[in-house]
Amino acid sequence: MRSTSVLAVALGTASVLVLAGCSGTATPQTSDDGRVSVVASTNVWGDIASAVGGDLVDVTSIIASVAQDPHEYEASARDQLTVSRAALVIENGGGYDAFMDDLIDGSGTDAPVITAAELSDAWPDDDHADEHSDDEHGDDDHDGHDHVEGFNEHVWYDPHTVAHVAEEIAHELSELDAANAATYEANYEAFAAGIQGLESSLDELSAKFSGEQIFVTEPVPLYLTEAAGLVNATPSAFSEAVEEGQDVPAATLLEATRILSGGGIRTLIANAQTGGPETDAVIATAKDAGIPVLEFTELVPDGDSYLTWMQANITALAGTLAR
Prior knowledge:
Blueprint: H1 13-20, E1 36-42, H2 43-53, E2 57-63, H3 77-84, E3 88-91, H4 99-107, E4 113-115, H5 126-131, H6 159-176, H7 181-209, E5 213-216, H8 222-227, E6 231-232, H9 236-243, H10 250-261, E7 265-271, H11 277-288, E8 293-296, H12 306-321
Parallel strand pairs: 1-2, 1-3, 3-4, 5-6, 5-7, 7-8
Helix pairs in contact: 1-3, 2-6, 2-7, 3-4, 6-7, 7-12, 10-11
């Protein structure tokens, strides 16, 4: 649950003035057809809310398409109005979707807010998180995003954390709509069984490929690959620079090229929603070296649910490792 949040990525003076005009309208409510209104920062958490809430909830995801880059998203006055009308708000946290903090604070909502990152076993204590929150790179040509130093904010790639978030969603929905608490609990149990299926698949992957090395252009899938027992051989300076939208130092790019060309890397995993010259360069090097290249997304693709999407990721990973 969110009590206080570190603000990041300012909306810009003009946007703030527009958004401020919507504040004071926050009233937790149901939709016109009586369903509980839930707003999520991305369709990952929106889909999980839908799985737990079923037909009893009306879910709106601020970012809902793989064509959108969450790192560069700019919130609108319409988004703030949407948040102000929510009965429950779900954000990723950890600096990933910092625009949500601005929307929540600007809307004046008193709806409960679930911050997924804070439910991760890897989440640092509050003092550490505040002390090491990175400064905004305002002089960059690219739009990076603030994050808590040493913490991987892509927690939806960790089934264990996702199970905690789903449980918290069920709890909050039961508080908001006590008459249907049994339904929310049953839906959560069904979803949790799906999570157990993912974890079983990861255990099978680990039994076959534990200790094998991979290269990732960004840290997006690392919770998943670590659960599969895989070793990340990427220079940290490379993935950090790409994630922050910064230029990869020449020496780091050379090191990455040597790693990929030197043998021992079983697969390269790239972010399908972002890219750049350095990413293109390492992908080309991997292909030249005969290393399979796998692309993961940050959002749930159209037609998938969280569970089918993540299982497809695990299956694809197993396929590339088996080559």
